[in-house]
Write a structure and sequence with these properties.
Elements: H1 11-22, H2 26-36, H3 41-48, H4 52-69
Helix pairs in contact: 3-4
Length: 70
């Protein structure tokens, strides 16, 4: 999607997103940040010193925690 067409995050939405992320533990906050940077799983796993399968499990739990936090 070209930059001009990217949706703008409203101030209220940004506050909600930041509030939700602040409720996560530090490890999940770091993972959420990596996901926003769209790093490949292999690179994220290397940074976190874990396997890609472990990373997938952590992402699954992160998504569940974000659903509960909303």
């Amino acid at each position: 999607m070209p930059l001009q067409q990217m949706p703008v995050i409203l101030k209220e939405d940004k506050k909600h997103i930041l509030d939700t992320i602040s409720k996560l533990n530090p490890d999940q906050q770091e993972l959420a940040e990596m996901l926003t940077k769209e790093l490949p799983y292999s690179k994220m796993a290397h940074i976190l010193d874990c396997s890609e399968n472990t990373l997938r499990g952590r992402i699954f739990r992160l998504r569940n925690n974000l659903k509960v936090a909303n």
